[in-house]
Design goal:
single chain; alpha+beta; Immunoglobulin-like; 4-stranded antiparallel β-sheet; 3-stranded antiparallel β-sheet; 1 helix; elongated; TPD1; signal; Beta-1,3-N-Acetylglucosaminyltransferase family protein
């Protein structure tokens, strides 16, 4: 009887762990912004931070950036702007779970970046 209970407990634990690893969504990408206190050609500098709050890796993360403007160059190895979308390049690396990525830009006000798509990879 004890062996059966141990077996069932192991199955339940495995199910919980496996299910928990595969429930990541685009909502697990948190966007925060703050002023840096600097000005770049008379525009306020902003620091955007993306945080992957899930254990799973997010691949091909794209942000909505229609109308985004900056007077400060952004390193294209971090983020690539194409039309209404910004692709998080992250130096060619996946956006691993529980990691952050940041970049600065300069404009009059903060821009409402919003995650719009990604591929979730759990192992």
């Amino acid at each position: 009887m004890a062996a059966i209970l141990k077996f069932l407990a192991a199955i339940m634990l495995f199910t919980i762990i496996t299910k928990g690893n595969c429930q990541c969504t685009l909502d697990d990408i948190k966007v925060s912004q703050s002023q840096t206190g600097k000005t770049v050609p008379n525009k306020q500098e902003w620091r955007l931070t993306l945080n992957n709050t899930c254990i799973c890796t997010q691949l091909g993360l794209k942000l909505s950036c229609k109308g985004f403007q900056t007077v400060e160059p952004i390193d294209p190895s971090i983020i690539a702007i194409s039309g209404d979308e910004c692709t998080v390049v992250n130096n060619g690396n996946p956006f691993y779970g529980f990691t952050t990525l940041s970049f600065n830009y300069a404009w009059d006000t903060s821009f409402p970046f919003k995650p719009i798509s990604s591929q979730i990879s759990c192992s």
